[in-house]
Amino acid sequence: MASVFSKIISGEFPGRFVYRDDDVVAFLTINPVAPGHTLVVPVKEVEHWLDLDEELLAKINAVSKKVGKAIYRAFPCEKIAYQIIGLEVPHVHIHLMPINKMEDADFSKANPSPSPEFLDAVQAKIISELG
Asked: In whole angstroms, what is the distance from residue 44 CA to residue 40 CA?
């Protein structure tokens, strides 16, 4: 059964993409902890990051760095958090989010229902910074 991320990647479910190539995508989470909270996901459905081949892992990291720099410019902050947790969706994904302190990466503070207008504005800012 395809993961929710595979369904977003295929267009079956909507997603606000900021980056896409044949191997890796980046799109906004629907429950952002902070403005700019983005997921970097391999197109190929792999459940655990330890099972990624080296080439795909390297590409995911390169895309994460590129998108992370764009988030950093779009949403000034101290750092960009990079987290692999993977419990909620069985498809490898990197959480990127702007933070100023550890508490800023607390998933219990996620916005459960951000407005479409908010998400559209965040998407536009990141895409603009990606060039």
From this structure: 12
